[in-house]
Specification:
Mean pLDDT of chain B: 93
Radius of gyration of chain B: 23 Å
Distance between the termini of chain B: 20 Å
CATH architecture of chain A: Up-down Bundle
Structural class of chain A: mainly alpha
Low-confidence stretches of chain A: 1-8
CATH topology of chain A: Four Helix Bundle (Hemerythrin (Met), subunit A)
Largest sheet of chain A: none
Mean pLDDT of chain A: 92
Number of strands of chain B: 0
Order of helices and strands of chain B: HHHHHHHHHHHHHHHH
CATH topology of chain B: Cytochrome C Oxidase, Chain A
CATH class of chain A: Mainly Alpha
Largest interface: A-B, 45 and 52 residues
CATH superfamily of chain B: Cytochrome c oxidase-like, subunit I domain
Number of strands of chain A: 0
Strand content of chain B: under 5%
Strand content of chain A: under 5%
Number of domains of chain B: 1
Structural class of chain B: mainly alpha
Oligomer: heterodimer
CATH architecture of chain B: Up-down Bundle
Number of domains of chain A: 1
Radius of gyration of chain A: 21 Å
Number of helices of chain B: 16
Number of helices of chain A: 6
Chain lengths: 212, 542
């Protein structure tokens, strides 16, 4: 007789073991993410130290209000993510759906504003490369600031898009009723990830918008 | 040790259904979540990549038989050593022991049903293959001439090779490393059998743990660095671009922040395997077990602080150079502790000279030579003379081939009866182990002398006075190639005709030996409970 297929077999002995393993796995993943962004932060730190004036000049070209508004938008979306986490544990399906919808919507607003900002930079000839001709000219290192700006916010936006995809999937599952109080892990894991992406922005915002 | 003395000690070895015989369909392999099958998928894949990289090495050694460039031109030679380096480092050495033996053995060793995230484990193999195939494609359409280190601004601006493709292949394979490391960390923290406390873990498990920490914390830095190179190549501007005031040296810092710890990814698992083999074949607990375990973690931690010793002759400040030099010396302390632990274990032990033990002995000798010559290179003034010479080549091949590949071969031979359920031909295996040892030393020892005399690396031509030593080196490579080819035959033969191994042919301790050979798909009938220390061998000391 054939033993049962491995597809159904779980490496865990019980649900608690499964849950702690998933949490540790997620935290470990976030540690790798910190080092992934860390390379860019290291570049930023070194060049900002070498070229303080150019970085201040580059930062002065940023749209302070869009950056600030986006910070508010993203922090609020994280708040709703925390509500969603709470809702799934209380087993309140409708609240969970609404919270996830709010997270998703705020995330989309953030990206919308971000891409509007990218468009602005394009119009103002602030995109690094052959077309980099800002008004009033710029010292060469100022371009470094904008390379880092696009790399850092671009990578952050990519993480947001992946997060939005996962939240869409959570929303579908919440609607089908497969997210229950005894298995909250998918919402918890996504929450950790979303808060992490939020934290990255909390560092990006002052580094890019508030240099004086 | 007679082969037939081992056969069929355990009737459960004849159980018809195991992880291998359960299902022969291709689908059952490509969609498997069984850590043992994933380990075998890795085994086949890395053997393939090893062969291609070895052919590149053979071509280089062939070219170096004569001082003139009569086989290839310099451009092809550049592409050959790049392909050799990229494939050997990222597609053979880094996955070798962790992804093959770690995947197969680790869950068995700690009494677990599987790794913590079996689906992620399978995904890691697909990422690995995607990366590997991209690199192969880049090679087929013309290759890359930057060397495996992708130094800027050459890689980002001037190189006419397929840097984008190859870098993205390495980038993708990096995520497979991260997935594997993450899986092992969680597995070791959360899935150990009841009673298996941290200080009861076999040292192989400790070494995989330390390796996983490096994989998880260093690889993302490589990923972002490669991404920045691709960005710079694609857009024509980037953060390493000197025209903008960018610093190419920053690339080297970021690259070595990954790649020096990666050297420890390429040796720590070997230390783990060798600890298992030495304990088993000297029938003793590893001397100073706790210190040996802590030394493994210490090497992993210190390994993050020494990257600057690759940059002594760059424009790095002298002050930084001095600090990096001192820190590099510091790594030799836990490394030496490990060597003393092994030697002290062998002292007055009743030793059996079976094949795995021969490899372990080879490791011990070659790793010691590699480690000591590392101290030469960590010395600032000496490094100025030896930097970018064949001395460096010889040094890191003693660590990576003499150390890691010896340990990998030893581990394959040690656990082969568990993996395949069969015994290989012991004498052929011993002959191949000795052949590899001799071939290796013939190939690489002359390179220490060549480097000391000033022969630079990465050139296909050289002054005629270096020819004798180069001929010795190339003939050594031939011997080495024979040594590496033999196992393919006798291990393949053993799969079909080898005597059955029984569950524990070496009389070793460790939970993996309590399962039938090959193990059932679900590993253990019931979860084992551990009540003993690791390496609980009866005292046979003379």
């Amino acid at each position: 007789m054939k033993p049962p297929s491995s597809i159904d077999a779980s490496p865990y002995t019980d649900a608690t073991q499964r849950s702690v393993a998933q949490h540790l796995g997620m935290w470990t993943f976030l540690a790798t993410e910190i080092l992934f962004f860390g390379g860019l932060f290291a570049c930023y730190a070194i060049y900002r130290h070498t070229y303080p004036e150019a970085f201040a000049a580059g930062s002065a070209r940023m749209d302070f209000w869009i950056g600030t508004l986006n910070t508010g938008v993203l922090l609020t979306s994280s708040l709703f993510m925390a509500f969603a986490d709470h809702a799934v544990k209380l087993g309140r399906r409708e609240t969970l759906r609404r919270c996830l919808a709010a997270v998703w919507l705020l995330g989309v607003i953030f990206l919308g504003l971000k891409f509007y900002e990218y468009h602005q930079k394009f119009v103002e000839h602030l995109v690094p490369g052959a077309g980099f001709h800002p008004d009033g000219g710029a010292a060469p290192p100022e371009q470094l600031f904008f390379v880092l700006y696009f790399a850092m916010t671009g990578l952050h936006a990519l993480h947001m898009m992946i997060g939005l995809g996962v939240i869409t999937w959570l929303f579908v599952r919440a609607s089908r009723g497969t997210l229950t109080a005894d298995r909250p892990a998918p919402v918890e894991m996504t929450g950790l990830y979303w808060h992490f992406v939020d934290c990255v922005w909390v560092f990006l915002y002052p580094l890019l918008y508030l240099v004086r | 040790m007679k082969i037939d003395a081992f056969s069929s000690r355990d009737v459960s070895a004849d159980t018809p259904v195991n992880y291998f015989t359960r299902d022969y369909s291709l689908r059952s392999w490509l969609f498997t979540r069984d850590h043992k099958r994933i380990g075998l998928l890795y085994l086949i894949s890395i053997t393939f990549f090893f062969s291609i990289a070895a052919i590149a090495a053979a071509l280089m050694r062939w070219e170096l038989l004569t001082p003139q460039g009569d086989l290839v031109v310099s451009d092809i030679y550049n592409r050959l050593f790049t392909l050799h380096g990229v494939l050997m480092v990222w597609f053979f050495l880094i996955p070798s022991i962790p992804a093959v033996l770690g995947n197969f053995i680790l869950p068995l060793m700690i009494g677990a049903r599987d790794v913590a995230f079996p689906r992620l484990n399978l995904a890691s193999w697909y990422l690995f293959m995607t990366g590997g195939l991209l690199v192969l494609y880049a090679i087929l359409i013309g290759g890359v001439d930057t060397g495996w280190t992708f130094y800027t601004p050459y890689s980002s601006v001037y190189s006419n090779g397929h840097v984008m493709l190859m870098a993205s292949g390495v980038f993708i394979a990096g995520f497979s490393s991260i997935a594997t490391g993450l899986n092992f960390i969680v597995t070791l923290h959360k899935l150990r059998a009841p009673g298996l406390t941290w200080f009861r873990l076999p040292l192989f498990a400790w070494s995989i743990y330390a390796t996983s920490l490096i994989l998880v914390l260093a690889t993302p830095v490589l990923a972002i660095t490669l991404l920045l190179i691709m960005l710079e190549r694609f857009l024509g501007v980037g953060v390493f671009d000197p025209k903008l005031g960018g610093d190419p040296l920053l690339f080297q810092h970021l690259f070595w922040f990954y790649s020096h710890p990666a050297v420890y990814i390429m040796i720590l698992p070997g230390m783990g395997v060798v600890s298992e083999i030495i304990a088993c074949f000297s029938r003793k607990r590893i001397f100073g077990y706790r210190i040996a375990a802590i030394a493994i973690l210490a090497i992993a931690a210190l390994g993050f602080l020494v990257w600057g010793h690759h940059m002594f002759v760059s424009s790095q400040s002298v002050y930084a150079g001095v600090v990096f030099s001192l820190l590099s010396f510091l790594v030799s302390v836990p490394s030496a502790i490990k060597v003393f632990n092994w030697v002290a274990t062998l002292h007055r032990a009743s030793i059996r000279f079976d094949t795995p033990f021969l490899y372990a002995l080879g490791f011990l000798a070659l790793f010691t030579v590699g480690g000591l010559t590392g101290l030469f290179l960590a010395t600032l003034a000496v490094d100025v003379h030896l930097h970018d010479t064949y001395f460096v080549i010889a040094h890191f091949h003693y660590i990576m081939v003499g150390g890691m590949v010896m340990a990998y071969m030893g581990g394959i031979h040690y656990w082969w009866p568990k993996i395949s359920g069969r015994l290989y031909h012991e004498w052929l295996a011993r002959i191949s182990a000795v052949t590899i040892f001799i071939g290796f030393n013939l190939t690489f020892f002359p390179q220490f002398i060549l480097g000391y005399l000033g022969m630079p690396r990465r050139f296909h031509i050289y002054p005629p006075e270096f020819q004798t030593l180069n001929i010795v080196s190339t003939s050594g490579a031939v011997v080495l190639a024979i040594g590496y080819t033999l196992p393919l035959f006798y291990l393949g033969w053993s799969l079909f005709f080898g005597p059955r191994a029984g569950s524990n042919p070496w009389d070793a301790t460790g939970l993996e030996w309590t399962t039938p050979s090959p193990p059932a798909e679900h590993n253990f009938e019931r979860t084992p409970v551990v009540t003993q220390e690791a390496y609980d061998y009866p005292d046979l000391s003379l």
